[in-house]
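R.M. (postdoc): so does anyone remember the format we settled on? I'll just put the structure tokens first.
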């Protein structure tokens, strides 16, 4: 059975949409998913990238597009009262709920829907307390073990070549975004394109931007 590492941050609307879409996108295939919360801001900084919501025009389009995609995919979605927001409490809470090092799908689903359904403040203290009570974490979300787990996930993501979320790592290959789910499925199915040289050859072109004058 193939293992997929699904890197996510609960503040990402695309991660939420991909999370909801994944079971249908991979229906009928044999696989196991490890859901791995990461701090998206740290991943972006590692690659010298700005967050999408830091660019006003891009932020406006993203919010319109994700709401459009949600109704296209039949996913309930409402923008939280404030976005972006500081996701650390949610990331740590999810990791604190896992019987093992990572949260299961049910925990991730509960946190994602806390953020992306209802249109409320995702990190309102009263709502966070209610969410924590409902999830009944096994470990202290503010404890060093949980903080270390989040750092380890984030470092593992960047080491694997992840540069944004949602990202799925399968057999050392990184697939990025909601629209990469069909490509991920094809790889799981053993499509011959993935056994050719195409994957490795595609990025080997020199970049004209790297030329020194």
């Amino acid at each position: 059975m193939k293992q997929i590492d699904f890197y996510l941050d609960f503040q990402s609307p695309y991660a939420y949409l991909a999370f909801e879409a994944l079971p249908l996108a991979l229906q009928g295939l044999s696989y196991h998913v490890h859901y791995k919360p990461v701090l998206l801001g740290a991943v972006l900084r590692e690659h010298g990238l700005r967050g999408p919501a830091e660019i006003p025009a891009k932020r406006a389009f993203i919010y319109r597009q994700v709401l459009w995609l949600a109704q296209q995919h039949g996913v309930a979605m409402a923008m939280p009262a404030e976005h972006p927001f500081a996701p650390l409490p949610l990331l740590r809470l999810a990791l604190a709920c896992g019987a093992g090092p990572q949260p299961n799908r049910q925990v991730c689903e509960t946190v994602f829907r806390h953020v992306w359904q209802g249109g409320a403040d995702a990190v309102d203290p009263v709502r966070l307390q209610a969410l924590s009570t409902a999830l009944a974490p096994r470990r202290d979300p503010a404890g060093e073990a949980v903080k270390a787990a989040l750092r380890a996930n984030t470092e593992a993501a960047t080491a694997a070549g992840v540069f944004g979320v949602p990202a799925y790592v399968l057999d050392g290959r990184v697939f990025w975004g909601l629209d990469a789910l069909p490509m991920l499925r094809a790889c799981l199915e053993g499509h011959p394109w993935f056994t050719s040289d195409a994957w490795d050859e595609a990025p080997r072109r020199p970049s004209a931007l790297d030329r020194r004058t």
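R.M.: ...and that's the designed sequence above, right after the tokens. Also worth knowing: The first strand starts at residue 2 and ends at 8. The domain at 2-210 is CATH 3.40.30.10 (Glutaredoxin).
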